[in-house]
Design a protein that fits this description.
Radius of gyration: 16 Å
Number of domains: 1
Strand content: 15-25%
Strand order of the largest sheet: 6-5-4-1-7
CATH superfamily: Protein N-terminal glutamine amidohydrolase, alpha beta roll
Order of helices and strands: HHEEEEEEHEHH
Number of helices: 5
CATH architecture: Roll
Distance between the termini: 29 Å
Oligomer: single chain
CATH class: Alpha Beta
CATH topology: C8orf32 fold
Length: 163
């Protein structure tokens, strides 16, 4: 396998569970750590949300007819370099996608969008995310304990598992 193919996984080879974007990104970071740890220095986990937990993103696979999907939050992986790219497993855009294209087609301008939908970004170095991410998945449960969406088959992420 060529080096380029080895360090840029295809979408089909990535671990993926719908609606568990932060866990999907953790798995993607872990892939890069295993295959070429030096790349992690240029990678950042990007959390997209706001106070209202209403952030629109376009070109999402769960979208309908060109309309945005309004997430409570979304997480993507950014590889910052001279040709920065975004890894978003929930996007119908190429994988990875140039930051310029992702910004214009998935994020789009906030002009004309009500302030309640304006996005905020929290950027975390990928290596820190790998070490510090933990989730008991409780945010994905209804008040009766049932799942809002089926969880990944892997156990929940604890600091012990992540580290």
């Amino acid at each position: 396998m060529a080096l380029e193919e080895k360090i840029k996984p295809s979408r089909e080879k990535c671990e993926y569970t719908s609606c568990y974007c932060e866990e999907n990104v953790w798995c993607l970071c872990e892939f890069f750590r295993r295959e070429d740890a030096a790349q992690l220095e240029d990678m950042f986990t990007v959390f997209i949300s706001n106070e209202n937990r209403t952030v629109p993103l376009w070109r999402q696979t769960s979208g309908r007819g060109g309309q945005p999907v309004v997430w409570d939050y979304h997480v993507v992986l950014l590889q910052a370099s001279s040709s920065s790219v975004v890894y978003d497993l929930d996007s119908e855009l190429p994988f990875p996608c140039s930051l310029k294209r992702y910004s214009s087609e998935a994020l789009r301008s906030e002009r004309g969008i009500r302030p309640a939908y304006h996005r905020k970004f929290r950027v975390v170095p990928a290596h820190s995310f790998l070490l510090n991410f933990a989730s008991d998945r409780s945010h994905m449960k209804n008040s009766d304990g049932s799942w809002k969406m089926p969880p990944p088959l892997t156990p929940p992420y604890t600091l012990q598992r992540a580290g």
